[in-house]
Design brief:
It is a single chain. By secondary structure, the protein is α/β, with parallel strands linked by helices. It has a single domain, classed as 3-Layer(aba) Sandwich (Rossmann fold). The chain is 43% helix and 14% strand. Helix 1 crosses helix 2 (46-52) and helix 2 crosses helix 3. The longest helix is centred in the last third of the chain and has 19 residues, at 273-291. The radius of gyration is 18 Å and the shape is globular. The chain binds adenosine-5'-triphosphate (ATP) and magnesium ion. Adenosine-5'-triphosphate is lined by residues 8, 11-17, 42, 46, 151, 213-214, 249, 251-252, 255-256, 259.
Length: 299
């Protein structure tokens, strides 16, 4: 099983959009009994609202079929994982038949407080809360898990990172985007990695790549060039190469329309030819670096 999370310091860079569309595309490619899961860890439940619409998200929250309920009950059971399958639903008819969702919940932020309190009271390390569910998810046939975190690099994003084999960094290359990458090579980030290693992981999550998104202007293209140059000179944890995707994603209105229609981008054929082709090229790179693990051979 492989776990992937799109991380950023900044909000609104496309984490949720890329998570949902990448997971759906991968779900179209897996075979046999393999399944793909999206775990929505954001209080805004963006991934859930994208896939199902806000009414269904609200209903699921009322019913208690959410990531919050699963994590909460796992905490209460002192880490003995509840059966995740009880909280997971299929993505519905617009989406790949192999795509599943652990829905988001507006109360999820409470987990940060609950988990840290539990750890302080001598429970298990909060950072592994999500990771310890992975064996059960694997038993249930999920071969790929995408975790959609909140924007802030708080406890939930760290739980996502602690569970991840790869994290991908979407960057909108404007003047704010220039600095956003530096977080991933900062002492602050390395400290989080150290915390993950201490929790019993021998291999740290690698960077599955930097992808530029929502490019609108020529200036942004040149900012992307200069960020790409900085990234290529940087090493993750001081020693691993960080790939930059050659295919850059531009700003297309069809992304917003796909969201409004609760459909994958790939189904917006009449209006989104260019955006779809561009996304397909990005996906090929994702497949190569992450699914085929080419990142590991970059040194
Ligand atoms: N390439 C694109 N072109 C046009 N719109 C886009 C593109 N990528 C994302 N968007 C739009 O930008 C908005 C923010 O995207 P998204 O919610 O995926 O970002 P996010 O990083 O998950 O945000 P948050 O930090 O709030 O979770 C959404 O309305 C989405 O439809
Ligand atoms: Mg989001």
């Amino acid at each position: 099983m492989k776990v992937v999370t799109f991380l950023s310091v900044k909000g609104g860079v496309g984490k949720t959009t890329l998570t949902v569309n990448t997971a759906n595309e991968l779900a179209e490619r897996v075979s046999g009994s393999e399944k793909v899961l999206v775990i929505d860890l954001d209080a805004q439940a963006g991934a859930t609202v994208y896939v199902l619409g806000h009414k269904q998200q609200e209903n699921l929250e009322k019913k208690g079929s959410t990531a919050y309920e699963l994590l909460h009950s796992t905490l209460k059971a002192k880490g003995a994982a509840s059966d995740p399958e009880k909280f997971i639903i299929d993505a519905g008819e617009e989406w790949s038949s192999r795509l599943y969702l652990l829905p988001g919940d507006s109360r999820i932020m409470a987990i940060e407080r609950e988990a840290i309190a539990e750890a302080a009271a001598g429970g298990f390390g909060w950072i592994v809360l999500l990771r310890q569910l992975l064996p059960k998810l694997s038993e249930s046939g999920f071969s790929y898990v995408f975790v959609d975190p909140p924007a802030a690099f708080g406890a939930l994003a760290r739980m996502a990172l602690a569970a991840a084999d790869y994290f991908i960094v979407p960057i909108v290359p404007d003047d704010f985007g220039r600095v956003s990458f530096r977080m991933f090579v900062s002492d602050f980030f390395n400290e989080a990695a150290w915390q993950i290693r201490r929790s019993g992981r021998s291999e740290l999550p690698l960077c599955g790549g930097v992808v530029f998104n929502r490019i609108k202007t020529k200036t942004q293209e040149s900012i992307a060039n200069s960020i790409a140059e900085e990234v290529s000179k940087s090493k993750l944890y001081g020693s691993y190469a960080i790939p930059v995707y050659k295919s850059r994603l531009h700003d297309y209105i069809v992304y917003v329309k796909a969201l409004e229609k609760h459909k994958p981008l790939s189904k917006m054929k009449s209006e989104g030819k260019q955006a779809i082709e561009e996304f397909a090229r990005y996906f090929d790179e994702f497949y190569d670096y992450v699914v085929r693990d080419r990142v590991r051979s970059l040194g």
